[in-house]
């Protein structure tokens, strides 16, 4: 009999310069609760509903040698291949909170043609964070 091969999405790993600073930033700017920051300060996790957001250093010999180096954008005209997205019931208030707590404003929240209100910021590592209302 075949084993159950339906995977559960476990977590997303975000590669950052300083794990402790990024974990503290996401907690303050976006309202997440810190689940874990290990003693080495090389792994941190945030509670985010059903999925965990994990942070680890962008440069580390354990994985760079196995899977390649993380490509970090060199300017604000480049971005990572992934963006982090959060749903909020009050996108304007969430956007304001993020910017007041160190996020770089990219685009203020606006209504999109598909019925979602969306704004964009960059985190302290330059990663694009989409802040939007839930799409029904």
TrEMBL record:
Every VOC domain range: 8-134
Coiled-coil stretches: none
InterPro entries assigned to the protein according to its UniProt record, in alphabetical order: Glyas_Bleomycin-R_OHBP_Dase, Glyas_Fos-R_dOase_dom, GlyoxalaseI/FosfomycinResist, VOC_core
Leader sequence residues: none
Protein name from the UniProt record: VOC domain-containing protein
